[in-house]
Amino acid sequence: MATYRYTDPVLPKSASGRTAEAYAQMAADLGIAEPAPLVALSPAPELFTAAWALLRESLLAGGDGASGSGGTTRTDRELVAVGVSLANRCPFCVNAHTMMLHATGDHRVAERVLHGEEPEDPAQARLLAWGKATRTPQVPELGPPPFPRAHAPAHIGTALTFHFINRVASALITEAILPCNAQRFRAVRSIGGRTLHKAVRRSFTPGDSLSLLDDPQPGPSWAAGTPIGAAYTALRTAATMGAGLLDEADLTLVRATVAAWDGTHPPLAWEALPARASRPGARLALLAALAPYRITDEDVAAWKKPPFSDHCLVHLIAFGAFTAVDRIEAALAAQHSAHQAEETA
User: Fold this and answer.
1) 93 is catalytic
2) What is the dihedral of CA 20, 99, 151, 291, to 10 degrees?
3) What is the sign of the dihedral through the CA atoms of 314, 319, 320 and 324?
4) Nearest CA-CA partner of 238 in 324, 319, 158
5) Of 90, 93, 180, 312, which one is the catalytic site residue?
6) pLDDT tens digit string along 85-97?
7) pTM for this structure?
């Protein structure tokens, strides 16, 4: 079982209110009662419920035409999720979502992707490549998108969901999805997928998660008027609350560094990374944005001192993560707008 590195999460047995409602939806819709990357956010209910809403509406319910996606398949969206997770170097999410590919029945696709090979279907290969490319703005694989405009809310929403969740997972949980890393065995992956088959195959009503959110808004242009857009806006609002944990100088540094980021992974000798002793908050936020897998116990201990709590730490990590998500979203929104203009020209 995955463990939580720096916080004590609120588990279903002790949850109440919207947190408990979100857990109930996860168990029913995802087929997993305690998905670790989301559970890691539970000390901050506003983050927990919004992250679940975006995951549900894009990855799970995104195949229903009523969501504005026009009928993309769960396999398509899982390939985007895996592509993003590979680009972000998040082993937990790569393993989890190759297991979900097994759950869809696409066992050969799952194993090829896990072993670094492309799917044999060219359309699926393009979706995987697009998911990987979303980390790096302006690369050729980003345009034109390998899906029709009707699929943009589901695919862009899924990509942005996992750019956020990957960072949370790498920062706040261990890499082991199963005890003793049992997922490394193909038989275990296949069996695990079969246990989730019924959940993956069920139909979903778009928008069911929006009852967990306060005052859902229309959302960005690529998903305006859909549940995906409303969930994305809610998560953005909740995540950016963490900006209040940094002073103005640290905020300026984090935002400027991410704005100048080209999507590559920072070098080991990362000169722009603030010192742990003098600017621990800015350091944590920048690591969460660009290299969350490099967050150490010492990094967290240097910042997480009274009055800072688990709720504060989760918000700081979410703020850093979403600063990068915002950078990526801007590139994907521009690509979407350009694609729309080409189609209507």
Assistant:
1) yes
2) 80
3) positive
4) 319
5) 93
6) 999 999 999 999 9
7) 0.94
